[in-house]
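User: Just a sanity check before I run the rest of the batch. Below are the structure tokens for the first item. I only need the designed sequence back.
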């Protein structure tokens, strides 16, 4: 799976590319969002990108609408990932009994791997639990991730990797792990052996137990934007987002209430999907600034203001970046839930203002 094959998730894809390129990829990440949005495809594309021996970078790309990089699709690792047969790629997902697999020790993800591959292909990585339940032919009992799956993860972790590189566990629907099994997974997630990568996917974040949530980096998967190529209208929006972003960040330092309130009113007047798009753009811009600051590489985007390009990245440090990302994730979800935009944007502004001053 390459990022280029995922429709409407360019901004998130670019964030994942930056995380891998930074060389500081957290070993456990939690992708949150409805499965139709493409979280599984993003997780797979991220793992493939991390494993690719010939990563591509597109320096000229406009990151709001175009990918800044991708896996090559041709190296040995990419080919195996493309066929979902890489020996260090493991899938864990909910299972239930069928005519073929009865309750007992056979009931585990491994026993349904060929069905799950078929499911991923048939639904282009965007299938729902209900579609999986039907394709696998489960009985009426809802599937869950089982103790035998935790055993399999532990066993795999004690084998040396067949190839150099990452050992990847994709846990599909981590909100269906029962608590007893979740407890077993804490240690491997907290203290992974070697180059292990846990990519968890969940629709309802609050159903993933807190001890797992707190050990993972959260990646919010928003509804896909239009899959069409950027139109001149989209390019105009992109320009507007850039100037809104620069104006907003400057305001957060001075915190002039009258000016901020005017900015919030005008941002809240935008269509809800544009508000979400703007917030994702802002979060992604901050990610790009942080990366440039940390690596000393040139800033991957131009805010059209040399002074801002030079000074803003210095406001981002390891002490505030995680809090800033959390704040964006939280408030983007609030926008999705139709919360009152003006209050949401004002609260986000105060939170960011406090965090930016805490470098
Ligand atoms: Zn490759």
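Assistant: Here's the designed sequence for the first item:
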């Amino acid at each position: 799976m390459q990022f280029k094959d995922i429709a409407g998730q360019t901004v998130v894809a670019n964030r994942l590319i930056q995380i891998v390129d930074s060389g500081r990829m957290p070993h456990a990440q939690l992708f949150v969002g409805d499965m139709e949005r493409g979280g599984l495809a993003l997780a797979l594309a991220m793992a493939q990108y991390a494993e690719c021996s010939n990563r591509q970078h597109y320096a000229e790309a406009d990151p709001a609408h175009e990918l800044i990089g991708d896996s090559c699709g041709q190296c040995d690792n990419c080919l195996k990932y493309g066929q979902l047969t890489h020996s260090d790629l493991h899938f864990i997902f909910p299972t239930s009994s069928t005519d073929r697999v009865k309750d007992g020790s056979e009931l585990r993800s491994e026993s349904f791997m060929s069905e799950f591959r078929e499911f991923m292909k048939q639904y282009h990585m965007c299938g729902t639990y209900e579609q999986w339940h039907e394709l696998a032919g489960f009985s009426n009992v809802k599937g869950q991730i089982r103790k035998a799956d935790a055993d399999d993860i532990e066993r795999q972790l004690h084998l040396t990797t067949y190839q150099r590189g990452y050992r990847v566990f994709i846990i599909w629907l981590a909100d269906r792990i029962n608590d007893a099994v979740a407890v077993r997974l804490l240690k491997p997630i907290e203290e992974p052996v070697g180059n292990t990568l846990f990519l968890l996917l969940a629709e309802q974040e609050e159903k993933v137990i807190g001890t797992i949530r707190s050990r993972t980096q959260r990646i919010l998967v928003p509804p896909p934007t239009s899959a069409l190529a950027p139109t001149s209208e989209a390019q105009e929006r992109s320009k507007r987002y850039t100037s809104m972003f620069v104006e907003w960040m400057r305001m957060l330092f001075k915190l002039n209430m009258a000016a901020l309130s005017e900015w919030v009113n005008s941002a809240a007047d935008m269509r809800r999907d544009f508000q979400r798009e703007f917030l994702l753009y802002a979060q992604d811009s901050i990610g790009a600034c942080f990366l440039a600051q940390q690596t000393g590489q040139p800033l991957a985007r131009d805010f059209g203001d040399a002074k801002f390009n030079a000074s803003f990245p210095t406001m981002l440090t390891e002490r505030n970046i995680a809090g800033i990302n959390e704040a964006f994730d939280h408030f983007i979800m609030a926008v999705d839930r139709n919360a009152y935009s003006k209050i949401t944007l004002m609260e986000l502004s105060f939170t960011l203002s406090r965090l930016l001053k805490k470098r």
